[in-house]
Amino acid sequence: MRRTGSGVRKACVVTGCVAALAVGPSSALATPGTGVSGTILATGTSAGTLKIEPPKGRADVVVRTITIEPGGSTGWHYHLGQLIAVVKSGTLTRTMDDCSVESSTAGTAFIEPSGPGHVHIGRNLGTEPVVLYVTYLLPKGSPLSVDADAPQCAQAQAG
């Protein structure tokens, strides 16, 4: 006996209904939340893939707001763990240890790598405050940043 096109369609419809019945009850068991609220502080999009490497062992996770006034800077420093930053407003201009310059505008996100090989300075060269929302992933007990000397290339440019 040959199966007709309508028989195949009927089998597909029955299979679809069975699948829907299997999934349907699980979503009906979901419960709405109560007494919960949330506030999005900042949203940023990275230029590429974010590669996060948490510290080995126990970690301190710190969430901080940083404001850099026009003309202000962070001073040369590095971090003992990675940090994830979202630029809420303004434009942050960072000079890296090789004297390359990266600008991050409002609505962008970036990761700063860890260790003394990643010395950098953040500056606000604009006319409005730079506001950052930063999450630090630090080895337990570490400071948020470590002051550092300017790299050779920056000293040569200043002199």
Q: What does this protein look like?
A:
It is a single chain. With 159 residues, the chain is of the alpha+beta class. The protein has a domain at 59-156: Sandwich (Jelly Rolls), CATH 2.60.120. The chain has helices at 5-28, 152-158; strands at 45-46, 59-68, 77-78, 82-89, 91-96, 101-105, 108-112, 120-123, 130-139, 146-147. The strands form three sheets. It has a five-stranded mixed β-sheet with strand order 1-7-4-9-2, with no helix packed on it. The chain has a three-stranded antiparallel β-sheet with strand order 6-5-8, with no helix packed on it. It is globular and about 65 Å long. The N and C termini lie far apart (93 Å). Residues 1-30 form the signal peptide.
Offer a quick outline of the entry:
The protein has 159 residues and is α+β, with helices and mostly antiparallel strands. It has 2 helices and 10 strands; from the N terminus they run αββββββββββα.
Shape: globular
> Quaternary state, please?
single chain
Total number of helical segments?
2
| Distance between the amino and carboxyl termini | 93 Å
The third-level CATH topology of the domain at 59-156 is Jelly Rolls
CATH superfamily of the domain at 59-156: Jelly Rolls
Please list the strands of the largest sheet in the order they lie side by side.
Answer: 1-7-4-9-2
Tell me the series of helices and strands, N- to C-terminal.
HEEEEEEEEEEH
Which class of the domain at 59-156 in CATH terms? Answer: Mainly Beta
Strand % is 25-35%
Q: How many strand units?
A: 10
Helix/strand class: alpha+beta
Q: What summary fits the major beta sheet?
A: 5 strands, mixed
Question: Taking all residues together, what is the mean pLDDT?
Answer: 86
Just name the CATH architecture of the domain at 59-156: Sandwich
Helix content: 10-25%
- The low-confidence parts are 11-21
Rg calc: 26 Å
Signal peptide: 1-30
Keywords: Signal
Pfam families: Cupin_2
Domain Cupin type-2: 66-135
